[in-house]
Write a structure and sequence with these properties.
Blueprint: H1 2-25, H2 36-43, H3 47-53, H4 57-80, H5 94-105, H6 107-116, H7 122-140, H8 150-170, H9 177-190, H10 192-195
């Protein structure tokens, strides 16, 4: 049992080391230009070690992205498990709170993936994750969505959220995750025109 746990920890450490090396290279070279040799040299391992864990750089990138999204979904499920009402004006929506906290905790990964977007489809995948989060919210609270077509509503929420995340990361996260989550919650509760001060 102890030997097995030791092996598992070594495997995890090696995979983390390879992933961290890859993230360091991505801001310096385009994804298409990066080779496995670049990654193993940065990680200070041999090629056989790399191929013991990943098929190629695409497999490495997909593994990294999938792991982060699985973690995000797990965190949201834990925080959101007992939500029975809409969030209040003075507390951030758990979806926004978890999202911004998670991004801050994995800052280097998200700065590379969102700002550089090396594989070309990361933002699309993040968009789908956010859409699913809010679609689950609508189902969970039993809300009857009638005023705006559902696909347009979900697109608005997901694309605007990704835009805010992009700007937050580009501006070196001037505001805290709690502050960002609270402001997006307030905009969602008020609606755009009321947030601008209009009486509707």
């Amino acid at each position: 049992m102890n030997d097995s746990r030791g092996v598992d920890r070594r495997i995890l450490r090696t995979r983390v080391m390879i992933s961290e090396a890859f993230l360091k290279i991505l801001p310096q070279k385009s994804f298409t230009e990066i080779s496995v040799v670049d990654i193993v040299e940065q990680a200070n391992i041999n090629r056989s070690t790399f191929y013991a864990h990943f098929l190629d750089k695409d497999d490495l990138l997909n593994s990294m992205v999938n792991a982060k999204f699985q973690l995000l979904e797990q965190l949201l499920a834990e925080r959101n498990a007992h939500l029975e009402n809409l969030p209040s004006f003075n507390e951030p929506d758990p979806i926004f709170a978890v999202l911004f906290e998670h991004i801050l905790e994995h800052d280097e990964f998200y700065r590379v993936m969102v700002l550089i977007n090396p594989a070309g489809n990361f933002n699309s995948r993040l968009n789908e994750v956010i859409r699913e989060m809010f679609l689950d919210r609508i189902s969970q609270l039993g809300m009857e969505q009638k005023e705006v077509p559902l696909d347009i509503l979900l697109d608005h929420i997901s694309f605007s959220t990704i835009g805010i995340i992009h700007k937050w990361l580009a501006d070196s996260k001037v505001y805290s995750p709690h502050y960002m989550a609270l402001q997006l919650t307030r905009i969602a509760l008020l609606g755009t025109y009321k947030a601008m001060g209009a009486s509707v």
